[in-house]
Backbone:
């Protein structure tokens, strides 16, 4: 069965690149372009109006709601906390260390500028192998 990935990202160029790479790798992808859409999707997953994704790729810098709020909401909810999150951001490593210390628990923290789309796909595939 195809793994479902939910991408929460607001940059059109990034969306295009990630969607193409993820589809070509054989995964199903849904993209949300704002924090509000992300929170709405979490609520729909919680109430079973939407299928739970196998992985959420989350940008921290969104135009309306900070990605950290989305992550904290999901990880504090018993019905959502088992969904794995990969943070995709352009925050430098030092800032990511500060974020990690704020009890914001994601499965992986990835700096976009340090990854090609194919490297991201390899990380995702490796994650699903280890599950």
Residues:
């Amino acid at each position: 069965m195809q793994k479902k990935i939910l991408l929460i990202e607001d940059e059109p160029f990034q969306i295009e690149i990630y969607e193409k790479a993820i589809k070509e790798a054989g995964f199903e992808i849904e993209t949300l372009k704002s924090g509000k859409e992300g929170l709405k999707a979490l609520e729909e997953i919680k109430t079973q109006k939407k299928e739970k994704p196998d992985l959420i790729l989350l940008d921290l810098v969104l135009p309306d709601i900070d990605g950290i709020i989305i992550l904290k909401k999901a990880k504090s909810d018993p019905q959502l906390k088992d969904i794995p999150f990969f943070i995709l951001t352009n925050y430098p490593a030092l800032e990511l260390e500060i974020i990690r210390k704020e009890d914001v628990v994601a499965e992986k923290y990835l700096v976009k500028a340090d990854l090609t789309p194919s490297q991201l796909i390899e990380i995702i595939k490796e994650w699903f192998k280890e599950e």
Observations:
- The longest helix spans residues 117-130.
- The first strand starts at residue 4 and ends at 8.
- The mean pLDDT is 90.
- The beta strands are 4-8, 28-32, 55-59, 85-89, 108-111.
